[in-house]
Design brief:
The structure holds three protein chains of three kinds. Chain A has 18 helices and 34 strands. Chain A is α/β, with parallel strands linked by helices. Chain A has a five-stranded parallel sheet with strand order 10-7-6-18-29. In chain A, helix 2 packs across helix 3. Chain B is globular, with a radius of gyration of 21 Å. Chain B has a five-stranded mixed sheet. Chain B folds into two domains: about 1-105 and about 160-175; about 190-325, no CATH class. Chain C has helices at about 5, 10-15, 25-30, 45-55, 75-85, 105-125, 140-160; strands at about 35-40, 65-70, 90-95, 130-135. In chain C, helix 4 (about 45-55) crosses helix 7 (about 140-160). The N and C termini of chain C lie far apart (about 40 Å). In chain C, about 65% of the residues are buried. Classes of the chains: A alpha/beta, B alpha/beta, C alpha/beta. Chains in contact: A-B, A-C, B-C. The interface between B and C is large, with 58 and 54 residues.
Chain lengths: ~675, ~325, ~170
């Protein structure tokens, strides 16, 4: 039996006005286990705290009930008092007789019995409390960034600048991501490469950053502060440490017909290649499907021409294992598949292009060296139609997405202005549902396109794009403001395709036990208050993987994720919440139901020999990782046998509360 | 039946399996019991497979999975759902079982014979699988002879047979026969209860559940009730109860039992079959199944070994708690 | 034979089973009777909502007793049945709004669990107004008080719970 002290607070007159506090203290004295009870004006004041601390020592209390304001207000205060007085802080329970009693009931007739009832319930619970110890776990002072686009780059730089080691894993041969494919950026029209390339170089040269390009995360185990990650370094067939990046191999390569992914397939590249001129690292990879040597065993021209013998056809994938304290997911996005949008003739005509393809066409390093031309006949277009919201805000979930992709309105205005700047004679028509321009200097930017550049914005949607015999594209649309059908004979049509998370995120989400929404975007731990943290402790997110956003927002979020990581890595040890789930090995039958409902991946299973009534039995038993468990208790309800329990809110404690509330 | 024995003997002899989990002849023709056979002689002497072999052997594979070597187990089509569900819950080990899927032509309910005054069966023909089984010819120990239509003495579950296809097996033996009723479905009775007034529902279930003697037969036979220690025996929970002290406890026991198996219950009907008090316990399980089907989409536990049950899944658009209650009277 | 065919009148069935003392709700609600109501509140939203109701001095009946749980997903159906066993006349469960759960998914499981449990209780003839789930956020103090007033009123109109009570707990 516990030796319980009950401390009833007046809270000035806040409680005492509607609760006879002396009567509550008196009633407490007859409760099982209560050895001391008193009341005091302000329990949270220094004198009040001393009263509790002194009583703990004087009466040898093993548990304390404070009848006061909400535990959300002062539970932490009273736990500290207990701790200082040598009592385990989790042996304190609060009876909320202010917010949930004196403040909602008007007179002592009602308030006093209710307060007594709440006191008795807290006493019944604390009778079953057990001392709980906060655990400690170590922190590996190294962070992993998955994805080497602007989100990953900025996060890595911020963490590295704070003095911590960072590794970046990037799937493609170079970091840079989508931003490296863009020509100019809104709303300032500065060149994308000009602002991105210095950052890429900084990453490459930073002493705290290790780059794993052409690599993928293979597996993740462990938990916050102590993740173990296996990284697959795909065979490049070129030794990164030997290659000087002279590029001779690429000039000599006779296989020149591979699709150029960086240019969105608008032209071709060689079998040995770097995705673009400013690639970091500037080390080529061999595309084995296109390489003559890999297909036929002959050729070998690149190897013959390499002055430093960096080329190695025998290279194999390599798995490296590394420990991390924190992981940032920054896997970015791609455009949705445009093939299902048959009405826009994307499959039928090379002159119907996606907005990202147009970026490449407008880029000086792109397939047309920056000259605006039709991909079919290389003529410069005179009439261009931009179609907005292709697959965004789309009710048909088989081909489109319900959300707004957020960036399309702005980049369309940007692309229109860039074209008008260089080719003033081109007529540009933009079909839109709404023009959405919230953001600093965004609306001004859009108005410039309309007012200064004379871009023709048409509110309405396009029903069909029909390629004509003369090579033009007949665009049938509706002008909703003028309420008429519009027909435009266009030379080029640009589709503002919806963005979607990189499909790899599903695999990654499983590895990291992250939750994803219906559109494959990552869910935050809290949508408002913890926007860069994943629910899984120690995992953070940066960039479009969380939802559509533009470059400045991504960079800001990258900084936010970085400071969260730095805050974590700055600690030597992590304190773990002691109110976690616990599995009773005698009752657990390893059915996995608890694991199925755990949102944190905190439950795993082990084969263990147990002695049950003297019988030895090897059983599959659930184990809770206290560093991952957040104490929600979903598992304890899913468990049919009652093997899973929650410390601090145990089955018996809640049952005792229920019983006491009702049977008195 | 002899071909089952022969095959079992073969598998024992060539070392494929170490033992055979099947049905053993009972004291009477109508009460064969699950049994583990370890020798050819034992099989020849006692093995039986006939219309009274309703017992679902899946659950016995939990223990058998921990034994050395493989166990040959005979599973009827509906039993295989339980076996799959047990794989999903890591209770049985697939590799430890050699499953012979046996055909089923509907199983008999001894209680139905009793209701006809034919409970004390001495011999019965027409129930062996090899025979035509539209009519069962019964001879009682008192010498009464009677022919009864097979459908009239069939187990309730066979009237709403889920399938004659085994969900999991290593080999299949013997044929099956369609037994499903042409009219109605397994939820008819549940719907009839739902249509009653709350007073009537209360009275009905009170009259049924108050018969419970807490013998735990339902719990022991149920393949989904596979906890090592039931929560009602858990002294850490303050819910342990051995007997019904008052009206509420059987309610609590049966509600929680049905709730704990919700989403895992394959509707095998063993709980009702073994209840010595003839409480229609399957009506509680089916209520949950009907609700889950209506609220979250149709789901058959044990149709595979992976899909999470409705209580370990959710969608953001799920109906609110209590939403389904508007349909109910009262 | 179907259930309905067996059924004569509910009273007759209870009489036959020697259970006539049950079901007599009115007799037991005579005289002084205040309902007993248990409200399970999740720590992060609803308990905070209840605190806010207190801050705003939004009153609700004293017979409502709040039990704090970390998450609505911590509430085991056993707790609810236990409350009825011990004489509760109504049980209400409050949690964060779907999508706002502090633990992300807890209330989604709760929603399914309680939908099924309540439907089962209704099936067994327990008046369905005695159970309720309500989503109350930390900012909805007024909603908390209004919900509790409404629920208490409903329980008063239903009278004493005699269908799930364990009479040994009667006092």
């Amino acid at each position: 039996m516990q030796r319980i002290g009950v401390f009833v607070c007046h809270c000035g007159s806040n409680i005492a006005a509607t609760v006879d506090v002396a009567a509550v203290a008196e009633a407490a004295k007859s409760q099982p286990g209560v050895v001391f009870a008193t009341d005091y004006t302000y329990m949270c004041s220094e004198n009040g705290q001393n009263l509790i601390a002194d009583s703990i020592k004087e009466y040898g209390l093993t548990a304390v009930v404070v009848c006061s304001c909400s535990p959300r207000m002062h539970e932490a205060t009273f736990r500290k008092v207990a701790d200082k007085a040598g009592l385990n802080p989790y042996m304190v329970e609060i009876a909320n007789i202010r917010e949930q009693c004196s403040w909602v009931h008007k007179d002592t007739e009602i308030g006093t019995p209710k307060a007594i009832s709440l006191m008795k319930t807290a006493v019944a619970k604390v009778n079953l409390n057990t001392p709980l110890q906060e655990g400690e776990s170590k922190v590996t002072k190294r962070a992993l960034i998955i994805g080497g686009g602007i989100a990953g780059i900025q996060t890595a730089l911020d963490i590295a600048d704070a003095g911590y080691k960072v590794d970046i894993v990037e799937k493609t041969p170079s970091i840079g991501g989508r931003m490296s494919q863009l020509d100019k950026t809104f709303p300032t029209l500065d060149c994308s490469s000009c602002i991105l390339t210095p950052k890429m170089t900084e990453v490459a040269q930073h002493e705290n950053i290790t780059l794993y390009t052409y690599s993928e995360v293979e597996s993740v185990s462990g938990y916050v502060g102590d993740f173990t990650v296996e990284i697959r370094r795909k065979a490049r067939y070129v030794h990164e440490d030997i290659c000087t990046g002279c590029g001779l191999c690429m000039t000599k390569c006779p296989s020149k017909k591979a699709k150029n992914e960086f240019n969105r397939g608008l032209n071709t590249r060689t079998a040995i290649y770097t995705p673009f001129a400013q690639a970091i690292p500037n080390v080529p990879v061999i595309d084995t499907e296109a390489c003559i040597h890999f297909r036929t065993g002959k050729c070998g021209i690149c190897a013959k021409n390499c002055a430093v013998q960096a080329i190695d056809y025998e290279q194999k994938d390599e798995i490296i294992t590394e420990k991390y304290g924190a992981i940032v997911v920054a896997t970015g996005f791609d455009l949705i598949d445009l093939k299902p949008f048959g009405e826009y003739a994307y499959n039928l005509s090379p002159d119907v292009v996606s907005s990202l393809e147009l970026e490449r066409i407008l880029n000086a390093a792109g397939p047309t060296s920056g000259h605006l031309q039709r991909m079919s006949d290389h003529r410069q277009p005179k009439e261009m139609v931009f179609i907005q919201c292709v697959g965004s805000r789309c009710e048909d979930d088989r081909r489109g997405k319900p959300y707004c992709s957020k960036i399309c309105c702005m980049y369309t205005a940007k692309q229109a202005m860039l074209i008008k700047d260089h080719y003033p004679d081109v007529n540009i028509h933009v079909f839109y549902i709404d023009v959405r321009t919230p953001g600093k200097a965004f609306d001004e930017f859009y108005r410039r396109a309309v007012e200064d550049y004379g871009v023709d914005y048409i509110k309405g949607q396009v029903g069909k794009v029909t390629p004509q015999a003369d090579g033009t594209l007949l665009v049938h649309g509706v002008d909703m403001l003028d309420q008429k059908v519009v027909e435009i004979n266009a030379d080029m049509v640009v589709l503002a395709a919806a963005v979607e998370p990189n499909p790899d995120i599903r695999k990654l989400a499983t590895m990291l036990t992250l939750s994803i929404d219906n559109n494959n975007f990552l869910n935050e731990a809290h949508p408002k208050l913890r926007p860069v943290e994943a629910a899984t402790a120690g995992v953070f997110m940066s960039g479009v993987v969380q939802g559509p956003r533009d470059i400045p927002e991504t960079v800001a979020q990258a900084g936010a994720a970085a400071i969260k990581v730095v805050g974590l890595l700055a600690k030597d040890k992590l304190k773990t919440n002691p109110c976690v789930a616990q599995s009773d090995e005698l009752y657990c039958n390893g059915c996995s139901v608890c694991q199925n409902v755990c949102p944190y991946g905190a439950i795993s299973y082990t084969e263990k020999e147990v002695r049950d009534h003297g019988v030895r039995d090897t059983r599959r038993i659930a184990q809770v990782n206290p560093a991952l468990c957040k104490g929600c208790g979903a598992c304890s309800v899913a468990c049919p046998s009652g093997a899973m329990n929650l410390k601090g809110f145990s089955n018996r404690q809640i049952m005792a509360e229920v019983d006491t509330v009702l049977c008195q | 039946m002899q071909e089952l024995i022969n095959r079992a003997k073969e598998l024992l002899a060539d070392g494929t399996v170490a033992r055979v989990l099947g049905w053993k002849k009972g004291d009477f023709v109508y009460n064969p019991e699950p049994h583990i056979f370890t020798s050819a002689e034992e099989l020849e002497k006692d093995f039986v497979y006939d219309g009274f072999c309703g017992a679902n052997l899946s659950k016995y594979m939990i223990r058998a999975s921990k034994m050395e070597g493989k166990t040959l187990v005979f599973l009827k089509p509906c039993d295989t759902f339980s076996f799959n569900q047990l794989i999903k819950e890591h209770q049985v080990v697939r590799e430890q079982a050699y499953i012979i899927g046996v055909g089923c032509k509907g199983k008999l309910d001894h209680r139905k014979f009793q209701e006809m005054g034919l409970g004390d069966i001495e011999s019965i023909t027409g129930i062996n699988l090899m025979d035509e089984c539209d009519v069962a010819k019964v001879t009682t120990i008192y010498g009464d002879k009677k022919e009864v239509p097979f459908a009239d003495v069939m187990l309730e579950r066979c009237h709403f047979c889920k399938t004659k296809d085994h969900q999991i097996f290593d080999e299949k033996m013997l044929g099956s026969k369609e037994t499903t009723d042409t009219e109605g479905d397994r939820f008819d009775e549940v719907r009839r209860i739902q249509a009653m007034s709350p007073e009537e529902r209360f009275a009905y279930f009170r009259s049924e559940l108050s018969k419970c003697i807490r013998c735990n037969a339902c719990r022991n036979v149920c393949p989904a009730c596979n906890c090592l220690h039931c929560v009602f025996d858990n002294t850490n929970y303050d819910t342990a109860q051995k007997a019904n002290a008052d009206s509420f406890e059987e309610n609590m026991f049966h509600i929680i039992r049905a709730y704990h198996v919700a989403g895992r219950c394959t509707d095998c009907g063993e709980c009702s079959r073994v209840c010595p008090q003839s409480i229609p316990l399957h009506l509680l399980n089916r209520k949950f199944i009907l609700d889950m089907d209506e609220l979250y989409g149709e789901f058959q536990a044990g149709s595979d070994t992976e899909t999470p049950g409705p209580l370990t899944a959710f969608t953001m658009e799920d109906p609110e708690a209590g939403a389904g209650l508007e349909r109910s009277r009262g | 034979m179907s259930v309905t065919e067996k059924m004569t009148s509910p009273e007759a069935v209870l009489e036959r089973e020697n259970l006539a003392y049950l079901g007599d709700a009115k007799g037991k609600s005579e005289g002084e009777w205040t309902p007993k109501i248990v409200a399970f509140c999740c720590n992060w939203c609803s308990y905070a909502g209840a605190d806010l109701a207190g801050n705003n001095r939004a009153s609700y009946p004293a017979e409502i007793k709040i039990i704090r749980v970390p998450c609505s997903g911590r509430v085991n159906p056993l707790f609810i049945l236990r409350a009825f066993q011990k004489g509760a006349d109504g049980v209400i469960l409050c949690g964060c709004h779907p999508g706002d759960c502090h633990y992300m998914t807890g209330n989604y499981y709760t929603r399914r669990r309680m939908a099924l449990l309540f439907s089962m209780l209704d099936y067994l003839g327990v008046e369905k107004g005695r159970t309720r789930v309500e989503w109350v956020s930390a900012s909805e103090g007024a909603k908390f008080a209004a919900t509790m007033n409404e629920f208490a009123e409903k329980i008063r109109s239903l009278g004493r719970n005699v269908r799930l009570e364990d009479i040994r707990c009667r006092n």
